[in-house]
Amino acid sequence: MNKMTASKPFSSRSVDEITGGCRLRRMRKADWSRRLVQESRLSVDDLIWPIFIVDGKGRREEIAAMPGVFRMSLDFAVKEAERAAKLGIPAIATFPNVDMNLRDQTGSHILDADNIINKATRAIKQAVPEIGIITDVALDPFTSHGHDGILRDGVIVNDETVQQITAAAVLQAASGSDIIAPSDMMDGRIGAIRDALDANGFQDVAIMSYATKFASAFYGPYREAVGTAGLLKGDKKTYYIDHANSDEAVRETEQDLAEGADMIMVKPGLPYLDIIRRLKDEFRVPTFAYQVSGEYSMIKAASANGWIDGEKAMLESLLAFKRAGCDGILTYFAPQVAQMLKG
C-alpha cells in the first residue's frame, strides 16, 4: 500500500507579515465603524417614483405582474403625490394607461391637451406644487401597435415621430411638467424638443434623456401596466440599443448632451451598472437609472416565495446604483424606501 503523503505545512509567515500589517477588517468590526467609512449612501433625495395613471374616478387597480403597484385615477394619483411629498420624495414620473378606443396607428391622442397625462400633471401640480413632475413623450401608450413611434409600412419612421413627440412635449410643458423625458430613442429628438420648448417660452423646463434605452427583456411587467403587452407587433430593436453594446451607448449619450439634454438616464438599471459607471466617468453630468418593472418584479416574486429577503435585496439593489455613480433612481420601491429612511 502506498503511504499517504504528508500535507504541506502552513505558511511560516504570520498574517501581519503576509499583509504588511494591513488588516482591512479593522474598520468592519463594529456598526459604528462600518457607518463611518461607508462610501455610498442612499437617501430619499435619490428617489423618483414612477406611477401609472388611468381615466375615471375611484379607480385603483393592482397590476398583477407588479405586486404592490397600481394603476390610479386622478383622485388617487393626487393623494399619492401628496403622500410622496410628505415623505420627501423629490419627483414623480407619470405614465398613462390609455383607453383602447383612443389609440391609433400614429398615437395621435398624445397631441390632445386634455389627455390623461396632461390632466394628471395639472391636477397634481395644483394640489402639490412642490413636487417635481417628469413626463415621457413616447408614443407607445397611445399607439394601437405598442411601438414608441409612428408605424408606416412596417417601419417606425423617425422624423415624423420626432415632429409629433416635439409637439407633445410642448403640451406637456404647458400643463406644468418640470422635466420632459423622451424614451422613444428617435434620432434628433432631444434637439428638436429643446428648440420647441425654448421657442414656446419653456426655457426652464429640463430634459432628462433616456440616453441609453436598451432592447431588454426586463420591460414585460411595465407593458402590462400601460396596456401594450398584447399589442406589440414585432420588436423594438430598430430603435432601442442592442444590449451587447457599450460604445454605442456612449455615442448616444454624447449626441443627446450635444443636442441639449440636461441629464441622462440608463434603462434598465441593474444589468447595466457598467454603462452607468462609464457614462458618469465620461461625461460627469447628472446621471439617473430606471430600476425597471422586471427588476422590481423579480425581487417581489423571489421575496414572496421566501427565496430572498426582499427588503434587504431592495436596499442593496438601490445602493448599487449609487455606487455605480447615479445621482438618482426611478424606482417603484420609492415610497417604501422613503418610509424606511424616514423611520
What sequence of helices (H) and strands (E) makes up the elements? HHEEEHEHEEEHEHEHHEHEHHEH
At the third CATH level, what is the topology name?
Answer: TIM Barrel
Strand order of the largest sheet: 1-4-5-8-9-10-11-12
Q: Biggest β-sheet, characterized?
A: 8 strands, parallel, barrel
- What is the terminal-to-terminal distance? 69 Å
Task: Please estimate the helix content.
Answer: 25-40%
Secondary-structure class: alpha/beta
Question: How confident overall, as mean pLDDT?
Answer: 94
Stretches with pLDDT under 50, minimum 5 residues? none
Write down the domain tally: 1
Query: What Rg is obtained from the alpha carbons, in whole angstroms?
Result: 23 Å
Strand content range: 15-25%
Supply the CATH superfamily name. Answer: Aldolase class I
Shape: globular
Pfam families: ALAD
Binding site for Mg(2+): 252
Pathway: Porphyrin-containing compound metabolism; protoporphyrin-IX biosynthesis; coproporphyrinogen-III from 5-aminolevulinate: step 1/4
Keywords: Heme biosynthesis, Lyase, Magnesium, Metal-binding, Porphyrin biosynthesis
Record keyword descriptors for this entry.
343 residues; alpha/beta; TIM Barrel; two-stranded antiparallel ribbon; 15% strand
Describe what you observe in this structure.
- This protein is an alpha/beta fold and 343 residues long.
- It has one domain: TIM Barrel, CATH 3.20.20.
- The protein is 38% helix and 15% strand.
- The protein contains 12 helices and 12 strands.
- The strands form 2 sheets. It has an 8-stranded parallel beta barrel with strand order 1-4-5-8-9-10-11-12, surrounded by 9 helices. A two-stranded antiparallel sheet has the order 6-7.
